[in-house]
Amino acid sequence: MQQPQQTIKEGLLKYAPFRDSPNKNERPDANDIQLIIVHGISLPPGTFGSSCIDDLFLNQLDPHQHPYFEEIHQLKVSSHLLIRRDGNVIQYVPFHQRAWHAGVSCYQGEHNCNDFSIGIELEGTDDTPYKQEQYLALSQACKSLIQHYPLLSEETIVGHCDVASGRKTDPGESFDWIEFKRLLSLS
Asked: Is 133 an active-site residue?
């Protein structure tokens, strides 16, 4: 089944449910959106389908639910979008605002990538193949973003590993950049 054309209105994807993360603030320049960063996330690590990613982005992660959560439950992080294993998209931060996803980062000599990027999390791990539904949803979201924000292009989509080299490895070797770029180039 072909997904409806996603459009952006007031910083939100029309067809994505919005869950308002408190982990955001204003960008230095809301018109300077020039990068899309693809991430991978699973909580607990290697587990898919739970509400734990939502809980993390909404500051509701229970530190007693899993030993790993004791280490991370106080983190204040977010992403603009999350794409679940089944391709469902959830939005946490409007695109014109700064989500807290990249951390210490640099792209082409510009530091603090959160200032000028959109973060998209894929539910997955570095070594578990992502699902075709995720590639389809990611390509549709990126097409909408490229159409809406003039500084974005197919060339300005990178992995978290590309902006936080040596610190982050996601989306990992399991992410098929060739398949993603193929879907992105289809009209």
From this structure: no
